[in-house]
Amino acid sequence: MRTKPSLYQTQAFRIVLVYVLLFAVSVSALLFFTYWNTRRTLDDQTDQIIEAEITGLREEYQHFGLPGLVETVRARTLHQGQAVYMLSDNRHHVLAGNLAFWPQVSEMGDVIEFDYERPVDSKLEARRARGRILLVPGDFMLLVAQDVHDRYLTERMFTTTLPWTVLLILVLGTAGGALIGRNMLRRLDAINRTSGEIIAGDLTRRVPLTGSGDEFDALSENLNRMLDRIERLMKGMREVTDSVAHDLRTPLNRLRNRLEESVARLNANGSQAGEIERAITETDQLIATFNALLLIAETDAGTTRAAMSPLDLGEVAADVAELYEPFAEEKKVSLAVASGPPAGVEGNRSLIAQALANLVDNAIKYTPAGGKVRICTAITGEGVDLSVSDTGPGIALADRLRVVERFVRLEASRSSPGTGLGLSLVAAVAHYHKAELVLEDNVSSGAPSGLTAVLRFPKTAMRVLPGVTLKSAAE
Amino acid sequence: MRILVIEDDLEAQRYLVQGLKESGHVVDEAADGETGLSLALSRPYDVAIVDRMLPRLDGLKVVAEMREHSNSTPVLFLSALSEVDDRVKGLKAGGDDYLTKPYAFVELLARVDALMRRRSPVGVRTRLDVGDLELDLLSRAAKRSGTDIDLQPREFRLLEYLMRHAGQVVTRTMLLESVWEYHFDPQTNVIDVHISRLRAKIDKGFEAPLLHTVRGAGYMIRAH
């Protein structure tokens, strides 16, 4: 199962984040355009007023010369208003105007802006003005300007608040995104958790509904309906297996009972019961095949309720090896276990032991005297491998897929006893544990031939064994 | 010994009752769960053999009820259901042993005998004796006629199980279940090889063999 996504990985959070960024950019653009447009309009107005003033002053000068100009400037600056004037000679000696000093002007452009001071409520106040400087014949200079301090203040406010506004949008937007993301995550989490439990085998679980009737509820409802159906099907499967088991075992039981009874009666009469004893052996073979088939069907379909718990594959390997060691010795085959560090997986001990016993049984049977059988556990990058290698004749590449199928027995082994279900059962057990059964050439120990059967458990099946952590911590 | 058989398959019941009677037991029978339960609660039995699926009252419930009434009669479940987890269910409900149908009668008889033996414990034993063979459970040492016998841990457990059931037939399946804790049939009869190893250690060089093979059933350890 996949791990729980973090908040920042949720789609909702990402969507909100992108949206907030776009929003912040467009808000800044809009505000900037408004600012730029307003300023342009205001400046145009100011410039028009200045032009009108200049036109008036030019007419005065044309009619009455310099004294007329001085007179007019003085008259116009008598009352304090928006207008700012200054007339001076080339040494900045003021002839008329309402400015105390000639302003510091960096360049003599068409339109200039400058800071100046003027008394407001008997205090000097720094203000800003916009205007033009004209040259008056005779080396005089005339400054005609308008006070634009209000515009300047608005502009200042604009430039200082804009970054804060954008920042606020980003912060609030991200927080909102996190909130929505967390909310969606919580809803999805409930669905994910339930699916996880169902995958783990608890088919009675259902996705909780909030009752809000939103799209998540709709999804949950659909999932629940699907689960109802699956549960019904699984239950049906179990009932079928159970009744098949019951309906076949009951008559088989009677058959075996009768055969046993006959043997007892014949023995009591002193007659030979060899034929019937052989029939009993055949019946037992039939029962063994039936049991194996049923177990394969159950494990393959996952309808078995075999309990899973964390176990050490190395321990299972050692146990099975111990069980088979005398048999191997009798067949003059050496049986060894090579266990690495503890290989913990979530599994059913009995099923895994049975699968491993089948593999070891096969390996010992098909390995000639003097050969070697090795049981190996190894932790790999992909998970845990439990393998059985032998130095027997091996299985041809073309036959490897086929032998795992039910009832397939290769020509070479037709004469030896067996149900032909051994490897199918191993494959079914592997499937039940989400592991894989892989048949390979035995390449270890420079064996000339031989087979390696690997049960490859995925990483998701790996478990930390409680005893192991304690031990390693103590070391 | 008194045995109660609760089995709804009358043919199987008849065979079971007859076989048990021939083996010298006193047997009562019931064909459904309710009758079986009232019998189990009204009379003392040494062992109850209970089919897993019964009409009127399910086998699991019969045993659960018995345990509820603090009736501790050992119970052997018989089941025709598929096995993997049904065994666990049966044992959880209060069963003491579990046998899947079809079974061999000798297997059933051996298990019934083992259950009866369990019924009469002789206190905590630290030593087991069969003839001149001694097993010290504390020091984990085995001796025969004073000679030390070197046993592997599993061989010790195997011998211990056989000696605890001295004089009784012990089947291969019982050994596999009790000594190895495996509930499946290995394709090859690996138990036989373990037994012949053990036999070589405890009987070789001694006049009277103690470990006997019971044809068609299993093994038995006995003095004579």
Mean pLDDT of chain A: 82
Strand order of the largest sheet of chain A: 2-1-5-4-3
CATH superfamily of the largest domain in chain A: Histidine kinase-like ATPase, C-terminal domain
Please list the strands of the largest sheet of chain B in the order they lie side by side. 2-1-3-4-5
- Low-confidence blocks of residues of chain A: 469-475
What is the CATH domain class of the largest domain in chain A? Alpha Beta
**Which chains make the largest contact?**
A-B, 46 and 32 residues
How much helical structure, as a percent, in the residues of chain A?
Answer: 40-55%
The helix-strand sequence of chain A is HEEEEEHHHEHEEHEEHHEEH
How many individual helices of chain A? 9
Quickly count the domains of chain B.
2
Structural class of chain A: alpha+beta
Highest-level CATH class of the largest domain in chain B? Alpha Beta
Query: How large is the radius of gyration of chain B?
Result: 19 Å
The total beta strand count of chain B reads: 12
Give the strand content of chain A. Answer: 15-25%
N/C terminus separation of chain B:
24 Å
Into how many domains do the coordinates of chain A divide?
A: 3
Q: Classify the fold: give the CATH topology of the largest domain in chain A.
A: Heat Shock Protein 90
